[in-house]
């Protein structure tokens, strides 16, 4: 069969294959799909499009494109995680590349014929499935290649997802400017070009990815005999794992951490302008958003790597204690209190680094508790917490802001309330993290059951 | 006597090339973002003074 090279068996690394070739493969996928975070660059150009009858889309309708994509990221990660473990990362990454690129191509037809439903279907549904498959596909492979540093390995890949917006934003802007200057329809042509570029870039990852041979381990490394009680030497399959209290607690951990992060990210630009009226211009606010994206990306690598040394529970302990204090403190930096832009920026940057760190550390936490056997599938189901936070976070933020605006109250007074709610949410996450205990032995898989599924190596 | 098995290791050049392929676009995006981020430290432009209109 023409696509047989995608099979797990065809992607087993030969002896001597360097494990340092695997993170670039994972990064190629995550840097591409991370483009979704920069989708807002298309908002104004899409608003300016008109149909043959003169109709135009509004901001709310265009906002649904991103929401659908994130919702399908969570749904597809949850649905296809177990399949991915059987099919192997190369096949999953290939389908991710096909779906993500097809999403752009379908959307280009939607933009050129002014049919929003086609963009919902393309970028939202088909592209969203590509996001979900791409997000989880390299995770368990990386963990198997780096049993000595699982946090570092997954941090590297998931850092790519944070960094994808830094490439996707300017790339889209430059392509749109280029096609506009050439007198071509800028959005459809940009969508097609990005679809092709991202497909080629992701195919680099598809060809480079390898799974380690059964029994492979890093040279000179032996699994520690005595380690933390929270690092299991046993495996739990996805069907059992997601029914355990540990899965539920980690779901709360991820949900609260992401919702709190959205509290800043959702309104970063207007928030800094409202809290420092007259000091921060719209241009400076764009700079603030850029700074947050750098810390979001860096936090993923730094915190996940650090978690290899500190332990996952301690790392989240830091996120939730420091985070709760800083969210409480952040509104006090505003113009009518401490009046310190620098302090506001520093605190927000640290908070966003922990938001990114929460995403990147969770796969290693899952691996510690449930073993590496089904970690991608379990991670996929846990990502429903992200989708839920993606709905709940903006609901809290926009709901409070709308209330203040509707009642003609000063908008800047809404932010302390929003940030204090986020601080409270982190206290809930703190309790959930504190309650995490080792998985009961009744959920462990028998070692003889590991091979047939094909995911043990 | 056990026969020595020669294992062909991945070329360091290939490893470097693989990293370059992902690092170059990342640095391009990072540079763009840093340039934008620096704007936060720029002082807001002071509006130019309106020139006095001479009385005629």
Describe the overall structure.
The complex is a heterodimer of chains A (457) and B (56). The C terminus of chain A is likely disordered. The longest helix of chain A has 32 residues. Chain A is mainly α and 457 residues long. In chain A, α1 packs antiparallel against α8, α10 runs antiparallel to α14 and α16 packs antiparallel against α17. Chain A has 18 helices and no strands. Helices cover 70% and strands 0% of the residues of chain A. Chain B has 56 residues and is mainly α. The longest helix of chain B is centred in the middle third of the chain and has 26 residues. At the A-B interface, α1, α7, α8 and α12 of A face α1 of B.
Overall pLDDT score of chain B: 77
- Rg value of chain B: 29 Å
**What class would the helix/strand composition of chain A place it in?**
mainly alpha
Main sheet properties of chain A: none
- Tell me the overall shape of chain B: rod-shaped
Give the helix/strand class of chain B: mainly alpha
Q: What is the chains' assembly state?
A: heterodimer
Q: Which regions of chain A contain 5 or more consecutive residues with pLDDT less than 50?
A: 451-457
**Helix-strand string of chain B:** H
Secondary-structure map with pairings?
The complex is a heterodimer of chains A (457) and B (56).
Chain A: H1 22-33, H2 43-47, H3 59-87, H4 89-112, H5 116-136, H6 139-145, H7 150-181, H8 186-208, H9 238-241, H10 245-265, H11 268-275, H12 282-310, H13 312-329, H14 341-370, H15 375-382, H16 384-406, H17 414-434, H18 450-453
Helix pairs in contact in A: 1-7, 1-8, 3-5, 3-15, 3-16, 4-5, 4-8, 6-7, 7-8, 7-12, 7-14, 10-14, 10-16, 10-17, 11-12, 12-13, 12-14, 13-14, 13-17, 14-15, 16-17
Chain B: H1 12-37
């Amino acid at each position: 069969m023409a696509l047989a090279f995608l099979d797990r068996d065809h992607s087993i690394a030969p002896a001597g294959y360097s494990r340092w070739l695997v993170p670039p493969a994972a990064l190629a996928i995550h840097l591409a799909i991370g483009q979704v975070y920069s989708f807002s660059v298309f908002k104004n150009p899409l608003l300016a499009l008109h149909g043959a009858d003169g109709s135009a889309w509004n901001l709310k309708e265009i906002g649904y494109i991103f929401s659908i994509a994130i919702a399908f990221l969570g749904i597809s990660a949850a649905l296809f995680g177990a399949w991915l473990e059987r099919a192997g990362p190369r096949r999953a990454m290939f389908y991710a590349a096909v779906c993500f690129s097809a999403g752009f191509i379908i959307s280009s037809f939607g933009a050129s014929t002014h049919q929003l439903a086609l963009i919902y279907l393309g970028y939202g549904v088909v592209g969203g499935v590509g996001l979900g498959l791409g997000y989880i596909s390299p995770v368990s492979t990386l963990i198997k290649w780096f049993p000595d540093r699982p946090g570092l390995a997954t941090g590297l890949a998931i850092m790519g997802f944070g960094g994808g917006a830094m490439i996707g934003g300017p790339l889209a802007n430059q392509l749109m400017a280029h096609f506009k200057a050439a007198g071509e329809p800028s959005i459809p042509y940009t969508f097609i070009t990005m679809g092709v570029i991202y497909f080629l870039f992701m195919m680099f990852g598809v060809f480079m990815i390898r799974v380690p041979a059964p029994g492979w381990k890093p040279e000179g490394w032996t699994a520690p005999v005595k380690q933390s009680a929270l690092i299991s030497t046993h495996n739990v399959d996805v069907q059992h794992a997601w029914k355990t209290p540990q899965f539920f607690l980690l779901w709360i951990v991820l949900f609260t951490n992401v919702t709190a992060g959205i509290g800043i990210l959702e309104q970063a630009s207007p928030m800094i302008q409202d809290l420092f009226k007259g000091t921060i211009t719209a241009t400076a606010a764009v700079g603030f958003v850029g700074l947050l994206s750098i810390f979001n990306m860096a936090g993923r690598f730094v915190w996940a790597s650090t978690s290899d040394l500190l332990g996952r529970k301690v790392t989240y302990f830091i996120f939730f204690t420091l985070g709760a204090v800083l969210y409480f403190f952040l509104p006090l930096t505003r113009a009518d209190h401490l009046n310190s832009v620098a302090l506001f920026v520093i605190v927000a940057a640290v908070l966003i680094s922990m938001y990114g760190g929460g995403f990147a550390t969770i796969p290693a936490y899952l691996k510690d508790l449930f073993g590496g056997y089904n970690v991608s599938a379990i991670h996929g189901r846990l990502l429903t917490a992200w989708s839920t936070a993606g709905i709940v976070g903006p609901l809290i933020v926009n709901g409070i802001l709308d209330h203040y605006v509707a009642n003609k109250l000063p908008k800047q007074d809404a932010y302390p309330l929003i940030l204090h709610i986020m601080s409270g949410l982190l206290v809930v996450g703190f309790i959930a993290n504190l309650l995490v205990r080792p998985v009961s032995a009744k959920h462990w898989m028998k070692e003889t059951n590991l091979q047939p599924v094909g995911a043990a190596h | 006597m056990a026969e020595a098995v020669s294992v062909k290791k991945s070329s360091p050049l290939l490893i470097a090339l693989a990293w370059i392929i992902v690092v170059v676009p990342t640095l391009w995006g990072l540079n763009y973002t840093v340039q934008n981020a620096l704007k936060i430290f720029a002082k807001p432009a002071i509006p130019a003074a309106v020139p006095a209109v001479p009385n005629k």
